[in-house]
Specification:
The protein has 284 residues and is an alpha/beta fold. Helices cover 46% and strands 15% of the residues. Strands 1, 2, 3, 4, 5, 6, 7 and 8 form an eight-stranded mixed beta sheet that branches. Strand 5 and strand 6 form a beta hairpin. Helix 1 packs parallel to helix 2, helix 1 crosses helix 12 and helix 3 packs antiparallel against helix 12. It is globular, with a radius of gyration of 18 Å.
Length: 284
């Protein structure tokens, strides 16, 4: 029997669209054999395995104006615009507790995508049990270049998974997932342009030429992946949920009302596509 997979693209605060989608799926009892998340898709998607609908939008709006959570002050003081210790340890361990027991006991596979800074290639990690390193891999996946420090785990230097594999549909297909729901955070027809911050990236990552090359070519990789996803969708080998139009929110946002708006777009879109999705997942 082929496995059902859930693929969550990143996109900073556009990921709250995905949070709205997956909350509806959890509330409706839609289960998957595995999930792979990239960047915000990993940071918010882990709540699927821990069975905590509503958690992502709750803590984002609660801490929207807390400089320790996300701010340029945090970047200047710590090197991370999203505070590493606050976001990935203090918050899930004390302030809005992540259900580690539920995560550990849920048989659904959970994979994250990072980018190996040394090679510029995608680094895939299945997180089987919740641990300090698990939080760090999720942090690495969501660590946007220049506004985040390089995350080193067990000798491997990592950053944002979206640089090397923004929409890991092929990865999931290659490891045995035959039916996949892909949640995108850009509308149909979106074409990514060349990174305008490349001069800064080249200077900041001057010790890592292969990472610079990956960043320089990211738009080409991304647009090819979108084409592949659309092709798989047309041939019935993937089901795609995407925003009906541009979400109009920046990667970094401290406006709780904007966060709620994007989240609600995700919920509305999920409800509109729910019956078709269930038919797709149940079809032979």
């Amino acid at each position: 029997m082929e496995k059902n997979g859930l693929i969550l693209e990143g996109g900073g605060m556009r990921g709250l669209f995905s949070a709205g989608v997956i909350d509806v799926l959890m509330e409706e009892g839609v289960a998957f054999d595995g999930l792979v998340g990239v960047s915000a898709g990993a940071a918010f998607g882990c709540n699927y395995k821990s069975r905590q609908p509503g958690r992502a939008i709750r803590y984002n709006t609660r801490f929207a104006h807390d400089w320790r959570y996300c701010s340029w002050r945090s970047w200047l003081k710590t090197g991370d615009v999203f505070g590493a210790e606050f976001c990935y340890h203090e918050m899930p361990e004390r302030l809005d507790r992540f259900d580690t027991e539920a995560f550990n006991n849920n048989p659904m596979e959970f994979h994250v995508v990072c980018t190996d800074v040394t090679t510029g290639k995608a680094f895939y990690k299945q997180l089987k049990k919740c641990s300090y390193d698990s939080y760090e891999y999720i942090r690495a996946s969501a660590s946007m270049p220049f506004v985040s420090k390089i995350v080193e785990i067990n000798g491997t230097k990592l950053l944002d998974g979206g640089v090397a594999d923004s929409i890991p549909l092929r990865y999931f297909q290659d490891i045995g997932y035959g039916k996949n729901l892909v949640v995108l955070t850009q509308p149909r027809g979106y074409v990514k342009g060349h990174n305008r911050l490349m001069p800064l990236m080249r200077f900041w990552l001057r010790k890592y030429p292969l990472m610079v090359k990956a960043l320089d070519e990211r738009h080409v990789m991304y647009n090819r992946q979108v084409e592949y996803v659309c092709s798989e969708e047309q041939q019935g080998r993937a089901f795609v949920v995407r925003p009906p139009q541009s979400l109009g929110i920046k990667n970094i946002c401290n406006d709780a009302n904007e966060m709620k708006r994007v989240y609600e777009v995700g919920r509305t879109t999920a409800h509109a596509r729910l019956d078709d999705l269930i038919k797709y997942l149940e079809s032979k």
